[in-house]
Amino acid sequence: MFNQQRKQIKKSIVASILVAMQLLMLVAPAHADRVKDIATLNGVQSNQLTGVGLVTGLDGSGDQTTQAPFTAESFAAYLDQFGIPMPAGQTFQLRNVAIVSVQAEMPAFTKPGQNIDITVSSLANAASLRGGTLERTLLTGIDGEVYAIAQGNLVVGGLGVQGADGSSITINIPSVGRIPGGAQTVREVLTGFNVGDHITFNLKRADFTSARRLSKAINDFMGAGTAEAVDAVSVKVRAPADPQARVAYVSELENIQIQQGEASARVIVNSRTGTIVIGEHVRVSPAAITHGSLSVTISESFGVSQPAPFSDGETVVVPQTNINVTEEDSRMFLFDAGTTLSDIVQAINAVGAAPGDLAAILEALKQSGALRADLIVI
Known about the structure:
The chain is of the alpha+beta class. It has 3 domains: about 45-185, no CATH class; about 195-260; about 265-305 and about 315-375, no CATH class. It contains 7 helices and 23 strands. The strands form 8 sheets. It has a 6-stranded antiparallel β-barrel. A 4-stranded antiparallel beta sheet has the order 2-11-13-12. A hairpin with a 5-residue loop joins β6 (about 135-140) and β7 (about 145-155). The protein is flat, with a radius of gyration of 34 Å. It is found in: Bacterial flagellum basal body. This is Flagellar P-ring protein.
């Protein structure tokens, strides 16, 4: 009897351990990302739509048709569709009409009858699109087919005001506006989602380690041989042929969590704003750096030259130029082998270098071969 109780207790302990192990396997690793956040399905992407139309109802801020005659021609062609012919060879100033470019992004799987947002921007010299209405405009895809029809009242965030004396003030960009839900789709873009016996995940950031880890995670979840990494971006996965089963299958796959491979060492320098980003794995070989700057000041002044008494000379104004050169004290600091990001930041802060000076230091380190990272200037 006692042995049977011991066996039951042992079985319950083993069962508890197995349940605990299964729960631990479900816990995602540190810094794990879902597949849907780091990869996209091949052939399933949004589509860009464009069109050219007319905005009417502007309060005198439309195109100057003498400088943009194509606006008048487009307006005449638009009226001709409704049986209103314009006299041939006649020039006229519209002022309340502007020719515009209409752009939209049609998400994947968008069905006919669904609405999408559009952006409207002036193509000619309209001062503002505020208060305007977009007339019916056909939006076409890259294949030239019409996929949506746009029209509606514009929402313009910019403001432009001009005085009678020619002075003006502009806030933001009044020549660009948006129409939320301003286009209705009339055609569906076919995707390759239900084609073939495989689907392919494309990583948003190319990395061989991430591709290998993704294929391994899918194989661990769905069974060996289900997925294989094709290259640093693509992972090919076997999928069921039935559309409903494929949707459920992808739903399971896109929620798998993996730890991405770490990016290569990079230093990003924005030359316009002075922003500098130093990656975690940036290292520096042994190097000694000194950095100083010269301050050159040039000032112009004027002096008066008086002639000697009882001479025939004249009083003249003589320009005087003063040049002053000041060299700031520079400090030298040493980078040991394997210097980390923290060491670099502390050394630069100790010197008191500005972002522009830091960019010069990093470029010099790269040229000397001491910076073990890619230096990218944007």
